[in-house]
Amino acid sequence: MRAITPALLGLCVLGLACARSRPDATASAAPAAPTVASGPGSDPCAVYIERVAPGVRCAAVDDAHCTCELVAAASASAPDVAANSSSASGAPTAPTGDAAVANLEFARGPQNTIVQCVSGPCPTRSADFITGVYPPIAIPAAGATVQLEFRAMHYKPYVGSYNLVPGRNFIQFALEREFGAPESAVFQFEGAPAGTTVECVSGPCVNNKPYTVDKFPELPLKDDGATLLLRFNAPGYRTAMTSFQVRRGPNAVPVLMEKAPLGR
Questions:
Q1: Quick check: 194 and 174 in contact, CB under 8 A?
Q2: What is the rounded distance in angstroms from the CA atom of residue 231 to the CA atom of residue 233?
Q3: Which residues does 182 contact at the CB level (< 8 Å), separation at least 6?
Q4: Which residues lie below 8 Å from residue 159, measured CB to CB, with a gap of 6+?
Q5: Which of 20, 25, 34, 232 could form a disulfide with 65 if both were Cys (CB 3.0 to 4.6 A apart)?
């Protein structure tokens, strides 16, 4: 015999005595024990119990008596969409355990190299510097493939396909210089006082000789992003030191110098 639902049991405890018919034909043929149930508002027994106890169906015996049965059992046997392996639209739902995350770490590239995802499970379509933190990529546990495009000034764009696995993924790439791209760094010193000389102290210096700002030589560079330490001297000003990251092509270098006290 099926258990009475909590809602229906509560009605019985409150004095609304009820009788439940069995689902088999023999039980339904036997007369059910009458229940006296006069609900709030003087609703008939059958109306009141069906209103306050979902899953219960009642039939009136007379004005003050009714007999009830459970009908929720049939609906409980219906398949649960959330528990089913397929969604309501019929598409398979991947188990939670099949989801994974790939984290990308990029090899070094030219200065200001950017990366952009062009196909696959892209977390974003924006172009980002490879030196920043790239958004994690949600992929199946079995892995996935993405296409990434790399670009940098004076280099040809490069598109590569990469098979990603859950966890850390080290992404290597190589950019080819454009034809005719500059191979040396050229300098323009901005804000230098009259008579300023500049000297390359460390880095890929041609030499360590002082030059006037308009005669400073070009520096051949193998890679962009080299760091120079430059020293500036000018009459009536204190010596200044500047650390500057250079790249092939034109480089504008600000010159900031303090005036020396009188007599020095």
A1: no
A2: 7
A3: 154, 248, 249
A4: 118, 147, 148, 149, 150
A5: 34
Query: Which residues is 202 bridged to in the sheet?
Result: 229
Between β-strands 99-106 and 167-171, what pairing exists: parallel, antiparallel or unpaired? parallel
124 three-class SS:
coil
- Sole residue written with tokens 């019985």: 12
| CA 252-231-245 angle, 5° bins | 40
3-class SS letters over 122-175: CCCCCCEECCCCCCCEEEECCCEEEEEEEECCCECCEEEEEEECCEEEEECCCC
Q: Which long-range contacts (CB under 8 A, 24 or more apart) does 210-214 make?
A: 213/189, 213/255
Residues 45/24, Cβ–Cβ less than 8 Å: no
pLDDT for the residue 71 = 67
Return d(Cα 115, Cα 64) in angstroms, integer.
79
Residue 21 sits at the vertex; the CA angle it makes with 17 and 25, to the nearest 5 degrees, is: 165
Stated pTM of the model: 0.47
Q: For 143-199, what is each residue's pLDDT tens digit?
A: 999 999 999 988 999 999 999 999 999 999 999 988 888 889 999 999 999 999 999
Alpha helix ranges (H) inside the chain: 6-13, 25-29, 45-52, 72-76
Q: What are the pLDDT digits (tens) for 92-141?
A: 334 345 669 999 999 999 888 999 999 999 999 999 999 999 999 999 98
The structure tokens listed for 239 are 């010596």
Question: How many other CB atoms are found less than 10 A from the CB of residue 80?
Answer: 7
